[in-house]
Amino acid sequence: MLKNPPPKPAAARKITGVCLWLVLAIFTVLMARITLGYWPVRRDAGFLQIKQQYLGILHWEAAFWIHVFTSMLPLLAGFTQFAPSILKKSPAVHRAMGKVYVISVCFITGPASLIMAFYANGGLLSRIAFVTLALLWLGTTAMGWRMVLQRKWIKHREWMIRSYALTLSAITLRAWKYAIVFAFEPRPMDAYRIVAWLGFVPNLLLAEWLIRRSRQS
After folding, report:
1. 132: three-class secondary structure by DSSP
2. DSSP labels for 47-87?
3. CA atoms of 143 and 159, how far apart (whole Å)
4. How far apart (Å, rounded) are the C-alpha atoms in residues 159 and 110?
5. Closest C-alpha to 51, from 59, 62, 41, 61
6. Does residue 6 have a cis bond before it (omega within 30 degrees)?
7. CA distance 54 to 38
8. Which residue, among 117, 124, 155, has the nearest Cα to 138 in the 3D structure?
9. By the 8 A CB rule, do 81 and 164 touch?
10. Is 111 exposed, middle or buried (0-12, 13-18, 19+ CB in 10 A)?
11. Alpha-carbon torsion (108, 78, 168, 171), positive or negative
12. How much is the pTM?
């Protein structure tokens, strides 16, 4: 009996890409559900139950609500930026969503995340992690913006890969948290200190690997 031939490399890459996009879409929906949990606005919803000591600090509250209700913007806008079909067939859509992404990260969600990072749970180790994440997110996005203004398209793509890898930390942090709690049942703050770093460091390493692989192809 003849066996089915192994998929061609192009077909395998397409299948892998579709699977990755499906996983990303599922986690994006879950993130949207978390966001909707804070509407209508109240001061005892979700994450706020363990942040009661910061209520009344105006800049923290403003940063929190900005982050909650705008963090989906870069996630969804970035979702469109690496789709070849959109880039080739609808460059105007690519540019428009790119502007939404850069504006939301550099001027809205990113600064709010930086403010919140100084008040992160888990003590100094967690705060260093989240401040580092916020600064890298702002910096890589600004560099991607700078490269497109200079029409350095390859560099632009590389910096935006790094930026979106950091955007996805909102998803990977939660995935790591569920996995670690399920496997090891650590104390909540211990788990938080670990996932504060795991949420973005592996993402950046994967981004650098993808960038170097594309340079060699």
Report:
1. helix
2. GGGG-GGGTT-HHHHHHHHHHHHHTHHHHHHHHHHT-HHHH
3. 6
4. 16
5. 61
6. no
7. 17
8. 117
9. yes
10. middle
11. positive
12. 0.85
What is the per-residue pLDDT across 10-61, written as a single tens digit (0 to 9) for each? 666 667 667 767 777 777 777 777 777 777 777 777 777 778 788 888 999 9
The Cα-based distances of 86 to 6, 72, 149 in angstroms read: 29, 20, 20
Residue by residue, DSSP assigns 139-166 as HHHHHHHHHHHTT-HHHHHHHHHHHHHH
Find out whether 146 and 161 touch, Cβ atoms under 8 Å: no
Q: Which residue has the tokens 């963090």?
A: 71
> Two tokens at 18?
């579709």
User: Cα–Cα distance between 176 and 88 in angstroms, integer?
Assistant: 35
| Cα-based distances in Å from 92 to 41, 81, 89, 96, 99 | 35, 11, 9, 6, 11
Neighbours of 209 (CB within 10 A): 10
Residue pLDDT, tens place only, 101-128: 999 999 999 999 999 999 998 899 999 9
Asked whether residue 207 carries a pLDDT value surpassing 90, the answer given is yes
Tokens of 59: 């800049």
The identity of residue 41, as a single letter, is V
Burial state string for 161-173 with b = 16 or more CB within 10 A and e = fewer than 16? bbbbbbbbbbbbb
List C-alpha distances in Å: 60 to 73, 132, 170, 193: 20, 18, 19, 20
